[in-house]
Amino acid sequence: MSVIGVSSQVTSAGNPAFNSQPNGVPSSTSSAPIGMTPELEQTLALLSSHRSVLGYMLLSRGHPVSIIRHSGGVFDGEHGKKYAGVVARIVETVQAGLEEINGGENEGDDVKFLRIRTKRHELMISPDGRYLLAVLHEPS
Amino acid sequence: MSVIGVSSQVTSAGNPAFNSQPNGVPSSTSSAPIGMTPELEQTLALLSSHRSVLGYMLLSRGHPVSIIRHSGGVFDGEHGKKYAGVVARIVETVQAGLEEINGGENEGDDVKFLRIRTKRHELMISPDGRYLLAVLHEPS
């Protein structure tokens, strides 16, 4: 089961990123440009409430990738855009690598989850058909 | 601490890959072209003894990447070479991404460990300054 339980439509990929709403449940007014399932809302709220989580980004796949929603200062502004591009590129490289390895045999293989431990942080990426969820956290 | 505890020198990057010796401790005759630390030997033997482990590859970083040693049919021959290239490319993409994100600030960040869960397998990559250890296993 995917971590991203998005089943609704993104009506416009060019929507500006939401401001972060770390622990609140966003209102369901018509100003919300995408339909978020309650499961996704819950997952994102839960993520943000973890003290070790520095932030998350929900991205819409495409060229260029767009930030649908984010939380955490680390993903603000230009830095966030850079991060989004890097996350998208990593997922593409891994997926292209799998395709090369499987060489069209059978039905191929798909990336389900990526965990990147760096000297400072841990970046977790959960790809979906049309979305990417990236979470940055600080391991203790 | 790195999973790869290689401290000795690779005397020639062009050495042919070793045949796999899944559970045995390789002889220490002069025919062994690289110096393997006992810790690395132990780690590789332990890895191979796990039933869920389909194989490992110890790679020497460089262009092109070369297979120092491998185990498991999945990493044999051309398929193994393809895998090695893909593993190296993934690590390079992640490392380049980190450099882009950190933009030369401070001392930068480094990839320590990568875990890629796919529909079928899990690929774990542990990069070192000059080596890469890749392990493919089948989660139950």
From TrEMBL, chains A, B:
Domain Roadblock/LAMTOR2: 40-137
SMART domains referenced in this protein's UniProt entry, alphabetically: Robl_LC7
Signal sequence region: none
Protein's name according to its UniProt entry: Roadblock/LAMTOR2 domain-containing protein
Organism classification: Eukaryota, Fungi, Dikarya, Basidiomycota, Agaricomycotina
Record-stated family: Belongs to the GAMAD family.
Transmembrane segments: none
Region (Disordered) location: 1-31
Domain of life: Eukaryota
Species per Swiss-Prot/TrEMBL record: Lentinula aciculospora
